[in-house]
């Protein structure tokens, strides 16, 4: 296992003092306890400093002298006026670039008040007097600060508890794996999973490990550290994924009948959240890229129009980035929503790493969003289902949130999930920038390599954007790589199978003519090479392109007649999609659906509860059910072999309040 390396950059534009400070600090680091491998190096100009921070993934802190900095190392006698940057501006640039870095200022005693005043609003972690030359003291403080950031309070406590090896007179039933260990039937599972999986699977009966329902100890500390790292006022760990996180927020912000603006293309948890909260949804149609069957963001024009039109809405939820990596220009949208008193929730399920590299920022919170939900497990080093809810809402009602959070959270949360969130935060803070820089480099390389096959082609932003959103300031997260595969001579299903069976490669998702690959901080160069090799070999087969069958376009959303929750809770009745002669059942049209009907992929609802079914929709469902392609159709009920839709009975409709 490699040891940590922590570089601290000293920025001081006078060579002699710079040399003396760096020497003094390195001597202190050598002579004192140094578990994090701290070393100091110096630069003399602002430009060098910024370049070093950009290139140096191991830099954990900077020590900035409070002077003005020359921007470049100009020749002393060049006669040109040397541009200068104030310490204040330099600190701003550093923290904008890498907010996770600790920033300390070296000041002269006589200037103390001015400097502290000027830097008051900046993210400065502390000050040292230059004249004191207390290098051991400075080192000790910086070392302590970096150690603090690297702490994982929950995980540390969990490990301590496991090593205490207490006798368990409490749940879970496997009791540290004792029930499996040595069993002739299930010991293999124990061996396969490893003993710590069982040792660390504990319960709320252990007070030392705090409570996810009412955190006051190590979970509270871990959440506070996550809030600081992710730039939130408050952070909550969710052990049921972002699926639950979204529902918790809805139930906090929306009373039954209150309006929510939402992208129709959002995740199904959002639609479920509408049912649970009883919200009145106003659906916004997302732009569709017909050429590739990709549903994109909602056009800015639509968003701004609907925000204007529904000032009574309580909240707006958007997905950014989308599954395909499209990121909204969020700031103006958030501003428009806030101007109408509408809270903004951003589903960042696919974007939990964004805070840790300038390439991906601003994050939703940085753009002003009130809430962000992140599937930490999808893109950082957390276990599946481990997500975070970040809150920046100035009107946050914690007691309500807590009630809803607890309503959705198991009273027996999986502790290794909480530990993994603690670890994911630590890793993102300590080496996120470095790992993401590597991921970006690999993504660029992979994109080039795929294009070099001459058969497969990576879709760039211009290819991905539907026309309606071309001027909306949308950007692409390049770690999501969508590839046009229409020239390779395989159908998408066959290509996926070939990649899986022959080359051991499992991709993220597909449309009828594209596949999407997801690079994360866990992507290695070897994986990139293997993928490139596989695509190159397939290209060399020189198969004639196949005719690819485009998935039918999802019909536009029709009128919502009743609140989704009202419709959902009606008993309803089942109507078959086909009649006796296997034609589309004409009785389905003009009835109101009681369930959400969602073809998967792409996971966008064709019908939501309370929506009127039209002949076009019945036709669409029938076509999907008839097609050979294996599209799951969530919400369709099978009575024997008969696929059916649950619809409201006329009597039930008469008892409900119409909304449209
Ligand atoms: C946009 C979006 N939001 C939320 C979720 C749900 O996240 P989780 O799997 O963490 O429950 C997903 C999952 O795919 C998603 O794509």
Beta-strand fraction estimate: 15-25%
Individual helix count: 22
Bound molecules: pyridoxal-5'-phosphate
Provide the CATH superfamily of the largest domain: Type I PLP-dependent aspartate aminotransferase-like (Major domain)
Poorly predicted runs: none
CATH class of the largest domain: Alpha Beta
Structural features, described:
This protein folds into four domains: 6-149, Rossmann fold (3-Layer(aba) Sandwich), CATH 3.40.50.2300; 215-429, 3-Layer(aba) Sandwich (Aspartate Aminotransferase, domain 2), CATH 3.40.640.10; 432-540, Aspartate Aminotransferase, domain 1 (Alpha-Beta Complex); 564-654, Orn/Lys/Arg decarboxylase, C-terminal domain (Ornithine Decarboxylase, Chain A, domain 4), CATH 3.90.100. The chain has 22 helices and 27 strands. It has a seven-stranded mixed sheet, sandwiched between helices. A five-stranded parallel sheet has the order 2-1-3-6-7, with helices on both faces. A four-stranded antiparallel sheet has the order 18-20-22-21, with helices on one face. Strand 1, helix 1 (15-31) and strand 2 (38-43) form a beta-alpha-beta unit. Pyridoxal-5'-phosphate binds next to helix 10.
